[in-house]
Write a structure and sequence with these properties.
The chain is α/β, with parallel strands linked by helices. The protein has a domain of 63 residues: Dna Ligase, domain 1 (2-Layer Sandwich). It contains ten helices and 13 strands. It has a five-stranded mixed beta sheet. It has a five-stranded mixed beta sheet with strand order 11-10-9-12-13, sandwiched between helices. Strands 5-7-6 form a three-stranded antiparallel beta sheet. Helix 1 crosses helix 3 and helix 4 crosses helix 10. The longest helix has 29 residues. It starts with 13 loop residues before the first strand and ends with a helix. The structure holds adenosine-5'-triphosphate and magnesium ion (MG). The site of magnesium ion has 4 residues, from loops.
Length: 355
């Protein structure tokens, strides 16, 4: 898709992927040599320190604070390029799959914005619109184009441009986070629907992806910070200690009380997810092939087993660093922190494409 990109070719063969989340900023620098992709550096900065919050909790910060946090992360990380791509949160975008008659491209350029009015609740002057033809489908015997339509509010794009300028990065493109995560995580059978579950601090995003496109998306207003809050409530620990207990113990059988508090929150999220999956499968007569757990919340110990049992679908926890070459001594750490970095890795991978 063209809209969010500057059409600059990345000749440098080095690129930083930047993911500004509500609880923390993540960066990953990759480089490419002889067609192989290597990890140069990665880092995370908790935004909680700018407000009276604890690591792992969501924040809503003004641009200056985000710039300050991201700048200090860039400074502390071992990066040696300014070339970067940046993710835009899914909640800031409107993504629709639309069907249009098969017409020449020029005509399509005029027709899509008209059709877009039906799908986009804002005035078209307020949003930046982009689309790409992703395939064809037959509707009542007539061949139609399947078009992925993306709209982002202009003030959101402006905000991310200001952040990029503030942190002095040369941004090649902006990308909606789900496309970045899909690039880093989906390497299996493209022709079957997969699910990416992105568990962040205050919400969990659910996406059904088929052939690289989002078939269904949904945000559940509960995330990993709610698990820490539940642990704190049930065990009397303060929120900081509860966050540590969540990370250390998670769903371990050794601590039934903690396990129960964690499971109650997960049950809320996964009952909703089960409903979404049943709807999708019934409507499309397609079975979900696999579930991929991403986002920091998915680093929870035992979550993979919990979800595969709860949903009875093959489940894996995101390992985005598997698609890059990294030193042996880092492998264990990269596998533990992997889920937090899916988006940042996916952004950086895009920056190295077509070189
Ligand atoms: N090892 C771990 N075990 C359990 N939870 C973890 C672990 N590591 C991080 N988390 C939780 O993950 C959450 C943050 O996830 P993530 O970094 O994906 O969110 P974000 O990108 O900042 O938020 P969003 O994408 O929703 O804006 C925090 O609530 C944190 O407590
Ligand atoms: Mg995130």
């Amino acid at each position: 898709m063209g809209l969010l990109s500057n059409f600059i070719k990345n000749k440098d063969q080095k690129v930083i992927g930047v993911d500004i989340g509500s609880s923390s900023v993540k960066i990953v620098q990759l480089h490419k040599t002889s067609g192989k992709v290597y990890l140069d550096s990665y880092g995370e900065f908790s935004l909680a320190s700018y407000v009276n919050k604890v690591v792992g909790q969501a924040t809503s910060l003004p641009i200056e604070k985000i710039v300050a946090g991201t700048s200090s992360l860039l400074l502390d990380s071992n990066i040696n390029t300014k070339v970067a791509g940046m993710a835009i949160p899914f909640r800031s975008s409107m993504v629709s799959l639309i069907k249009m008659p098969k017409v020449p491209e020029k005509q399509l350029n005029e027709m899509v914005p008209i059709e877009a009015r039906k799908y986009i609740p804002s005035s078209l002057d307020e949003v930046t619109l982009d689309w790409s033809v992703i395939g064809t489908t037959e509707v009542s015997g007539v061949e139609q184009l399947k078009i992925l339509l993306v709209a982002i509010h202009n003030n959101i794009i402006e905000k991310y441009k200001q952040i990029s300028e503030g942190v002095k990065l040369d941004i090649l493109f902006y990308e909606i986070e789900v496309f970045s995560a899909a690039r880093a995580l989906l390497n299996t059978d493209f022709s079957k629907p997969s699910i990416i579950i992105d568990m962040g601090a205050n919400s969990t995003n659910f996406y059904v992806i088929l052939e690289g496109n989002i078939e269904v998306s949904h945000t559940i207003g509960r995330g990993s910070q709610d698990i820490s809050a539940a642990i704190s409530k049930s065990s009397g620990l303060d929120i900081k200690e509860a966050e540590m207990v969540k990370r250390d113990i998670g769903l371990s059988k050794n601590n039934p009380n903690i396990k129960k508090a964690v499971e109650m929150n997960l049950e809320y999220i996964f009952a909703e997810i089960e409903r979404l999956i049943t709807n999708y499968q019934n409507k499309n007569s397609l079975a979900i092939d696999e579930v991929i757990l991403s986002g920091g919340g998915s680093a929870l110990k035992g979550l993979g087993e919990f979800v595969s049992e709860r949903l009875s679908i093959k489940t894996r926890v995101a390992r985005p660093f598997d698609s890059v070459i990294a030193p042996e001594f880092l492998q264990e750490t990269l596998s533990e922190i992997g889920p937090s970095f899916s988006v940042a890795v996916g952004v950086a991978l895009r920056g190295l494409q077509d070189n």
